[in-house]
Amino acid sequence: MKQGKKCKIIFTPSGRQGLVDENVNLLQAARQIGVDIDSVCGGRAMCGRCQIEVGEGKFAKHGVLSFANNLTGPNATETKYLEKRNLKKGRRLACQCDVIGDLVIDVPAASQMHQQLIRKDADNRLVDINPPTRLCFVEVRKPDMHEPSGDLRRVAEALIEQWPSRVSVSNSSEISADLQVLVELQSNLRKSNWQVTVVLRNGNHIVAVMPGLKTQILGVAIDIGSTTMSAQICDMNSGEVLAVSGMMNPQIRFGEDLMSRVSYGFMNEGGAEELTKAVQNGLQELIEKASKQEGLNVQDIFEIVLVGNPVMHHLVLGIDPVELGGAPFALTLDTAVNCLAQEVGLRFNAATRVYLLPCIAGHVGADAAGAVLAEAPQDSEEITLLIDIGTNAEIILGNCHHLMAASSPTGPAFEGAQISSGQRAAVGAIERVRINPNNYEPIYKVIGSDQWSDSADFLKEVKKTGLTGICGSGIIEIIAEMYLAGIISEDGVINGALSSKTKRIEKSGRTFCYKVTEQIAITQADVRAIQLAKAALYAGFRLLMDKMGVEKVDKVILAGAFGTHIEPKYAMILGMVPDCELKNVIGAGNSAGAGARMALLSLMARTEIEKIVRQIDKIETAIEPAFQDHFVRAMAFPHKTDPYSLLSKAIKLPHRELIDNVVSASTNSKRKRTGRRARP
Questions:
Q1: Class of the domain covering 218-356
Q2: Which tens digits make up the pLDDT trace of 109-121?
Q3: Which end of the chain has less Cβ packing within 10 Å, N or C?
Q4: The whole model's pTM is what?
């Protein structure tokens, strides 16, 4: 073959292309062009991660003829691999074939290092998978009497020579190692005939050296909520989520809300240490549970990323959060944290590291930072309102020009606490409700069943699940439906006069209640609890809108598990979100957890959020006089400031024909009381 011949290669799905020398190894060619095909073993046909497929035929768009025989045939090494492990038909190992003609090469998802991760259905965000911790299989030269050098130096030299794309330094003296690595290094090298897998962090620090070839490295992204904790175990090579698990935060026994827990730590000797131990043990249990479910080895976990509100953030680190209990709500630190897992009570392998995203301010934590990273309001011209609803709502408002943050004390009512029949979201809890405005009869659905209560199969389903109470999303829906049906007024008062028309409304002490079932009722106190919670939420984002000088927002993102399960139309009916086109009110899922996963898999994501957090302006609602004014006005349904501007659009529910009549009646009633024309 003639020397100097060039071959054209196009890689899909990235679309990258370039000219390479004939007879160059395909894996090397990919790296020359900038396509980082995964290969833990460094091209020795041991890990099988560099699989590719050849596109065959004429590709007029690229001007090439691509055929399988434009690669050299399987050599002895690849054949040996095929004998031990099967490859899908048409696949080759990139490390074992050379380029001898033009090619279109498809890189399957499992072989991509920079692949597309889909966080939710409507989001195809590209995440550059560039994890801080990587596996590098190396062959280390043996010691030589004529050239004295330490084992660590020779490991470092092997890394630089064999993994130039993963090492960030050029001199072996710049590569450091944990003490535990040095203690075990000589034994590990010699027992494996000088072939080892190095766990390299940040391109210049060795955290583990394991005999032979190891191909699996795991990381965990965890959202530590005040009520629940959730974990995602990921393959650090591919970014694939391998296991998901959740559990109640064991700190619940010390108090439903964060300030109760801060008070417990302050008023009880050793209380802060108890809280820390509880959450650390909970994290250990959570990770072990998720690993066991999918048959994963916890000793393969080398990286853990945590997000949580400031109190959770401090407690997991063993920092007393007492200063967060009162003004000026000072954080111990507002930067990201890197530490060993064993330093925060997590018992995996000695090399496991923990990274905590930075907190934004005293009541706006690393979970809010994770949500910002995931939803990226800083990348858009649209004015976006991002709300993570929990016992303390964290609110971000802004766009690419300016971001502001606040927190609002909504309390636990949205999660079912402080509600007479309320409960956490669990099997048997009512989660969906509709009320007929003619006879005030309800129908409902419970978690664990697909049937509405008016269906013939509902009773069969309920026997399986039980009927235990009403969860947060159910409470929001039923109070909105009570408002639409005229059972409660815009001031939140249950209309006792209707008790003569329906058995659903009963006297309850000095007030009235609405009975969903014989055992489950919505009381006047329940309505008030939701009014207080939604008023605090509204006042928080309205204050930010005032500070930013905007009268409307372009998009509302409801984050968190609770925000995801709220029907946007009901949130708007109750005034939990500002006036906005209903189609632009989006339930985003666990944005904080998604941000944690991004930070787990990408060093660039960590750098990005650490920079963004420092640019967010924090507004402290506790010292803003306007907060109380907004709070009072927001007690009404939906709210006093502009209650009918978009309501008619929000409540055109297809399952009822009389909704508009209800709205009209409510509007006419308001006109009579105020003496002015209500908005259509």
A1: alpha beta
A2: 777 764 433 233 3
A3: N
A4: 0.78
